[in-house]
Design a protein that fits this description.
This protein is mainly alpha-helical. The chain folds into two domains: about 70 residues, Nucleotidyltransferase, domain 5 (2-Layer Sandwich); about 40 residues, no CATH class. The protein has seven helices and two strands; from the N terminus they run ααβαβαααα. It has a two-stranded parallel ribbon. β1, α3 and β2 form a beta-alpha-beta unit. α1 packs across α3.
Amino acid sequence: MIGMEAAGIHETTYNSIMKCDVDIRKDLYGNIVLSGGSTMFPGIADRMSKEITALAPSSMKIKVVAPPERKYSVWIGGSILASLSTFQQMWIAKAEYDESGPSIVHRKCF
């Protein structure tokens, strides 16, 4: 959006990791997975690795994975999630949402 400032994907990733428990940060830095069509830009994995390395503590081993099928991985993951019987109990019908509003999400999903 023109005229709007926002953090880059590397900053958002770094900020998300820093909000997690200190005991799991090493694992998170070592398992950054790019997914979705917007990650298909040439060189994005190398750039992400370089940018995260500059932000993270120097002792951290950074690993950024960019699977070739990442363009569709979000859809594949959503498809798998939707097929799980444990997830089906969280489905919300339009009629339920119309009756209860956003609070139905908290009741069924959390």
